[in-house]
Every structure is written in C-alpha cells, then in structure tokens.
Amino acid sequence: MPHPAVRAAGALALSGAAALAWASLVEVRWYALREVTVPVLPAGQAPLRVLHLSDLHLVPRQQRKIDWVRDLATLQPDLVVDTGDNLADTHALPSLLHALEPLLGTPGAFVLGSNDYYAPRPKNPARYLLPDARLPLPAKPTALPAGELAASLRDAGWKDLTNRRDVVHAGGRTISLVGVDDPHMDRDRFPAPTTPPTPDADLHLGVSHAPYTRVLDAMWADGAALVLAGHTHGGQLAVPGYGALVTNCDLDRDRVKGLHGWPGPRPDAPGGEDSTWLHVSAGLGTSPYAPVRFACRPEATLVTLVAR
C-alpha cells in the first residue's frame, strides 16, 4: 500500500489537473451575462440600459465567443460602452467587427487598451504578483490594427473617448462622456473641461480601459456619476472564499470586478455620500498565452441606470 504522503501527493496532483482542465476547457468559454442596477438618473426618468463590453482578446477561431457577443443585441441596450482590449491577433479585426456588427447600430462609446495597440506576448505568470507587472515594449512590437479598429467604430457612430470628451444621445437622453487612453501604458491624458460645458446633460459618464486610481480620482473630481472600466479580468484566477489574487493595476482587490463606489463605499451605503459609482468588468477573454479562468467566469454586463 502506498505511503500516506504518496497518496496525499497523488490526490493533490489529481486535484490540480482537474482544476486546470476546468479552467482551460470549461470556464474560459462559460460566458456569463451579469446584470446590475445603478441609481444615478434624475428623478422621474425611465431606466437606461447600458451594455458594458470589455477585454474580448479575440482571435479569429473563437466562433463561440463571436456568436455569443452577436446575440447580446437581443438585449436591445440603449447604449454600448466598450472598454478596450478587443484584439489578440493581427488578423482578428474582421472577426471582431462581425461580432460587434449587430450592436453597431446602437449608440456607443469606446476606449482602447494595450491589446488593441500591440499583440500579446508570453510572460511569466509570476510577474502578476509583483507591484507592477508591466514589461517594457520590445524594440519591434507586433502592432495590431488599432487605428483601423477605431476608425471602424467611429464610422458606425460610436464616440471615440481617447483622451477626449464627447456627447451621445441614447434612450432619449443626453449623456456627456469623458475618457482616457490606456493608463496601463501610461497613455492617459485627462482632457480639460469643455467650454462651455454640457448643462443639458442628463448624466455624465467616465470611461477607461484600466481602472488606475489616478484616473478614477480624476473622473470622480470631474463629476462622473458612473465610471466604467475593464482590464483586470476579475483577477482571472480566483481562490474560492478569498477572491482574486491580483488586479494587474493599483486598484485594490476588493474592487477587482463588479459594482462598487469610488473613492469610498458605494453611494447607497453608509459613508458613501461623496463617492461615485464604479463598474469594473471581468471581461470576456484572456491572453492566448494564458487561456484559463478559475472561479471568475468571462462576462459582459447589462448596467441598468435608474432614477435616484
């Protein structure tokens, strides 16, 4: 009969193999639609449905993800907000535009992420445990068609919020927007206030790919009622009962995904009177070099805005 230590080691190895199989074969393709309600609209207004997409990291062979995203149009959102990292392959743009095509007739806004500009590359997973997991760009990075992607979305009528402000009309409302380029690449330049401002706006939204605290502070100070971001993948690998190990930015782990307040508690919680709402999407994809998720399903979110 095997020694107890050998049996324990075997059981541990079997559990690890089962977890890896689940993470790489099942959960990474187990797409979830989350739904949250945020009380931010002026009193008496009807609900406004915002579809928040992020971190598709699409490669052309991911037909199931493409079909799933196309089907989101059946939700009939009033507004679509895409917080970047759409691409993971130099040939993925046609597949991405096909995935988004049923939604492009809906008012929308977007920012780009690092994996819209440059293709992902292998990285030691242990780097994510460092205070700053970023690597410098190689001398000749593999460029992705970020310019063509942005032009295609602008041509469809979506608002490009790359370090700029804009206004969108959706669901019978006027919504002012402020966005930044990817803070993870230090490309963010917070735009100056417009002159004159938009006094007739029903709502002011902030949009960023990565929820770095400097950007969240700027959007909170700018008066954004809700900030939408992605980038974190919800930690991608979570420990049941503990949560995400990392956020891949300077955001705290408690806010790695879902609906929260910033800089304090949620505005509807005690002590949150001076906070704004923050929604961080866990996103729909992963790097092709780390195609696993554990206790953190890939997701898109229908954010229903209601009257305060």
Looking at this protein, list some descriptive labels.
308 residues; alpha/beta; Purple Acid Phosphatase, chain A, domain 2; six-stranded mixed β-sheet; 6 helices; 23% strand
Topology of this structure?
Layout: H1 4-26, E1 32-41, E2 48-53, H2 63-71, E3 79-82, H3 93-100, E4 108-110, H4 114-117, H5 146-155, E5 159-160, E6 164-170, E7 173-179, E8 203-207, H6 213-221, E9 226-229, E10 238-239, E11 243-244, E12 258-262, E13 276-280, E14 299-307
Parallel strand pairs: 1-14, 2-3, 3-4, 4-5, 7-8, 8-9, 9-13
Antiparallel strand pairs: 2-14, 6-7, 10-11, 12-13
Describe the structure.
With about 300 residues, the protein is an alpha/beta fold. It has a single domain (about 30-305), classed as 4-Layer Sandwich (Purple Acid Phosphatase, chain A, domain 2). It is about 20% helix and about 25% strand. It has a six-stranded mixed sheet with strand order 1-14-2-3-4-5, covered by helices on one side. The chain has a six-stranded mixed sheet with strand order 6-7-8-9-13-12. Strands 10-11 form a two-stranded antiparallel ribbon. Helix 2 runs parallel beside helix 3. The chain is globular, with a radius of gyration of 20 Å.
